[in-house]
C-alpha cells in the first residue's frame, strides 16, 4: 500500500512526534507507516482522515498487486 | 456498519489484547527478579549447592521472563500490539524448531548451566522449553521494535 502521509504531515507542518500525539500513537508508528513497513488499522486511518480533513483514499492507495484481478478487468 | 461502530469494534479488539497485560512499571520488576534469580542461581551453583534454592532461582527466572513478556510498553499502540503478536508467533515456531533440531547441543548447555550430569540426547524439560519460548519472544520483540524506530 502506498501512502502520502509524509506529504500530508508536511502540509500541516507537523513533526512525527506532534502527529503521533494528535492521534494517540507512538512516533515509531508514524515512522513505520511512512516507510511502508506497517499498514495502519481502520481506526487509525480514520483518525488521520479526520485530522487531515480528507478522505482516506486521498493519502492511502492500494498497489497494483493488491487490487483483485476481477476489479482490474472491470476498470 | 457505520464508521462509529466500526471504530468501536476495532477498539474492543485491541483492548481484548491488553486485558492480560501488566502496566509498564512491571517490566523493571520483572528484570529485577531475573537479575536476582540469576545471581542466586550462579552463587548457588558455585558455592551453596542447595537443590531447593536452585529450583527457586530457576522458577524465579521464568516468572521474571513472564512478567517482562506481558508488561506493556510506555505507549502500547496498535503497532506494538502487532509486533507483540509477531514475536509470539516467531517464538512459538522457533521454540519448536530449536527444541527439535538442537536438542543435543541444548542439552549440553542446559546440563552445564543446571549442573546436571546426565547422558546426552535427553529430552528437553518444561523449564528449558519455557525458557526458550520466553527468551526468544522477548529478544525478537525488542529486535522488531528496534527495526521500527
Overview of this structure, please?
The complex is a heterodimer of chains A (75) and B (149). With 75 residues, chain A is mostly helical. Chain A has a single domain (2-74), classed as lambda repressor-like DNA-binding domains (434 Repressor (Amino-terminal Domain), Orthogonal Bundle). Helices cover 53% and strands 5% of the residues of chain A. In chain A, strands 1-2 form a two-stranded antiparallel sheet. In chain A, helix 2 packs across helix 3. The model of chain A has no long low-confidence stretch (mean pLDDT 86). Chain B has two domains: 22-72, no CATH class; 74-149, no CATH class. Chain B has helices at 3-18, 26-48, 51-70, 78-101, 103-113, 126-147. In chain B, helix 4 crosses helix 6 (126-147). Chain A binds chain B through residues 24-26, 28-29, 31-32, 37-38, 40-44, 46, and chain B through 3, 6-7, 10-11, 14, 73, 75, 77-80, 82, 145, 147-149.
Strand and helix layout:
The complex is a heterodimer of chains A (75) and B (149).
Chain A: E1 2-3, H1 5-11, H2 16-23, H3 27-34, H4 42-52, E2 60-61, H5 69-74
Antiparallel strand pairs in A: 1-2
Helix pairs in contact in A: 2-3
Chain B: H1 3-18, H2 26-48, H3 51-70, H4 78-101, H5 103-113, H6 126-147
> What general form of chain A does the structure show?
elongated
Percent range for β-strand residues of chain A: 5-15%
Question: End-to-end distance of chain A, in Å?
Answer: 19 Å
* Percent of residues in beta strands of chain B: under 5%
Q: How helix-rich are the residues of chain A, as a percent range?
A: 40-55%
Give start-end ranges of low-pLDDT stretches of chain B. none
Order of helices and strands of chain A: EHHHHEH
The helicity of chain B comes to: over 70%
- The Rg value of chain B, from CA coordinates, equals 19 Å
Rg value of chain A:
13 Å
Q: Architecture of chain A, according to CATH? A: Orthogonal Bundle
Instruction: Give a count of the beta strands of chain A, DSSP E runs of length 2 or more.
Output: 2
Written as H for each helix and E for each strand, in order along the chain, the element string of chain B is HHHHHH
Domain unit count of chain A: 1
- The H-level CATH homologous superfamily of chain A, spelled out, is lambda repressor-like DNA-binding domains
CATH topology of chain A: 434 Repressor (Amino-terminal Domain)
Report the total helices of chain A. Answer: 5
Structural class of chain B: mainly alpha
- Give unreliable regions of chain A as ranges: none
Q: Averaging pLDDT over every residue of chain A, what do you get?
A: 86
Amino acid at each position: 500500500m502506498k501512502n502520502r502521509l509524509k506529504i500530508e504531515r508536511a502540509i500541516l507542518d507537523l513533526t512525527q512526534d506532534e502527529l503521533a500525539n494528535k492521534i494517540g500513537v507512538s512516533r515509531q508508528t508514524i515512522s513505520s507507516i511512512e516507510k511502508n513497513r506497517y499498514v495502519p488499522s481502520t481506526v487509525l486511518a480514520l483518525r488521520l482522515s479526520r485530522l487531515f480533513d480528507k478522505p482516506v483514499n486521498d493519502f492511502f492507495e492500494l498497489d497494483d498487486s493488491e487490487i483483485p484481478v476481477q476489479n482490474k478487468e472491470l476498470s | 456498519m457505520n464508521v462509529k461502530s466500526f471504530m468501536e469494534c476495532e477498539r474492543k479488539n485491541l483492548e481484548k489484547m491488553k486485558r492480560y497485560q501488566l502496566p509498564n512499571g512491571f517490566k523493571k520488576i520483572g528484570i529485577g527478579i531475573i537479575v536476582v534469580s540469576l545471581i542466586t542461581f550462579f552463587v548457588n551453583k558455585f558455592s551453596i549447592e542447595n537443590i531447593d534454592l536452585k529450583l527457586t532461582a530457576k522458577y524465579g527466572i521464568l516468572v521474571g521472563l513472564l512478567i517482562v513478556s506481558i508488561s506493556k510498553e510506555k505507549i502500547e499502540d496498535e503497532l506494538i500490539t502487532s509486533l507483540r503478536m509477531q514475536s509470539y508467533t516467531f517464538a512459538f515456531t522457533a521454540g519448536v524448531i530449536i527444541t527439535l533440531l538442537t536438542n543435543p547441543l541444548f542439552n549440553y548447555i542446559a546440563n552445564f548451566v543446571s549442573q546436571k550430569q546426565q547422558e546426552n540426547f535427553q529430552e528437553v524439560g518444561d523449564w528449558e522449553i519455557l525458557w526458550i519460548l520466553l527468551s526468544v519472544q522477548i529478544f525478537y520483540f525488542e529486535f522488531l521494535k528496534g527495526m521500527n524506530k
